[in-house]
Design goal:
alpha/beta; globular; phosphoprotein; Transcriptional regulatory protein DpiA
């Protein structure tokens, strides 16, 4: 076994997975857990926003959100807007099997950081989470450094 097979890039991270398809939900949870991450599961936008509200103001307990965009009881776009309005500034990674350029533009405008086509491949999901969490961390470090300069 190589050192990279043992590497668990999501160790210490907790993800909120919002997916209404039970098979997709299990698959994404499996990918995250196998990569060392923790998972909270929700099956609709309304319950995802409720979970986020419960964790406020400690949103650092959720390091990233994997958001299906076509959900019952508040779609992913509405849920994303509500999470951003609550002050969540971590990555929100949109997923869908029904995407086109207009949809993706709308999702990014709503506050999603990036988009993954379904079915989501494990390496694409993990790479996207790592990249977006690193971007968030670097942004926070830069903001702190700028505040200290004044």
């Amino acid at each position: 076994m190589s050192k990279f097979q043992r590497w668990k890039p999501l160790t210490g991270l907790s993800l909120l997975v919002v997916e209404d398809n039970p098979d997709e939900q299990r698959l994404i949870a499996h990918y995250v857990e196998r990569s060392g991450g923790g998972v909270m599961l929700e099956c609709n936008g309304k319950s995802a926003v409720y979970t986020m509200k419960k964790m406020m103001p400690e949103t650092d307990q959720i390091h990233a959100v994997i958001m299906d965009l076509y959900l019952p009881e508040d779609d992913g776009i509405s849920a994303t807007r509500e999470m951003r309005a609550l002050g969540y500034d971590g990555p929100i990674i949109a997923t869908s099997s029904r995407a086109d350029d207009d949809n993706i533009s709308e999702w990014i405008t709503a506050g999603c950081d990036t988009f993954l086509d379904k079915p989501v491949a494990r390496h694409d999901l993990i790479a996207s989470v790592v990249r977006n969490c690193c971007d968030t961390m670097l942004r926070e470090i830069n903001e702190k450094n700028q505040q200290q300069e004044f």
